[in-house]
Amino acid sequence: MNDIKIKSALFGVAVGDALGVPFEFNSRQTIAKNPVTDMTGYDTYNLPAGSWSDDSSLAFCLTEALTQDYNLTIIGQNFVKWYHQNYWTPQGHVFDIGIATRQAISRLAKGEKPELAGGFDETDNGNGSLMRILPLLFYLLDKPIKERYDITKKVSSITHGHIRSVIACFYYLEFAKQILSGKDKFEIYKNLQTDISNHLASLAINPTEIAKFDRLLKSDITKLDESKIHSSGYVLHTLEASIWCLLTTDNYNEAVLKAVNLGSDTDTTGAVTGGLAGLLYGIENIPTNWIKQIARRDDIENLAERLAEKIASH
Fold it and tell me: Where is the chain membrane-spanning (predicted)?
């Protein structure tokens, strides 16, 4: 695994995230009056341009753990260090955290097993595990689908244990895996309708849960009008929006700007879309002036290089 692919993923997430940070909680209607076209700062959190949020912080915490080895306890401890000691923050302080993630980190800090720390209730389906899951891709690459699913489930469950969040993370990582293998994005979308459906059916998951993913697994989401695409903090909305933005645009900046301009949870929709778009188009197609503004750019590059070295040594 070369570090370029890992950099494409990590900067893909961070740039999409940072584009959205200043506009978080703004409605689609408000943003439409003055659409986002470039990297800016301040507004919602009063932070300089290029500041990424908890989405990237937790993705980097996961990456950092994987530079040592796959170990759920280390991943969980890194999340605790982020929240309590400002580890892997862009500007030295935590300024945003989801409710379910905060509760899970509190349980982790008290010694709960990582795979049991996340909420398992239907109401615990924010996008907090989806937004940080992409780095796991590089650890899962050579593993069979059953193992990919099982590990994804455990890593999601550190903060989000409900089956819906797990399936969302699994779908997203399987999409990313096929991007890495060089497949066309529309071909991937069709492939996953079979691959994911078959695997979930084999696990005897409640069919009503699988049906929640029908817009991705049974229909053509690209045919939906923007008004039918939601951008709240609900995990299914974020996953659908990111796939829709990826499939209805032709380059990295169009994809992430489309995501951010959907409004509401702008940073996370930007980050989740940006991760796949970064992999699909490569870091060389992420606007250089955006990358230059990213907080701790050198640290992120170094992190990607260390993960690449770790994977190569296996």
Answer: none
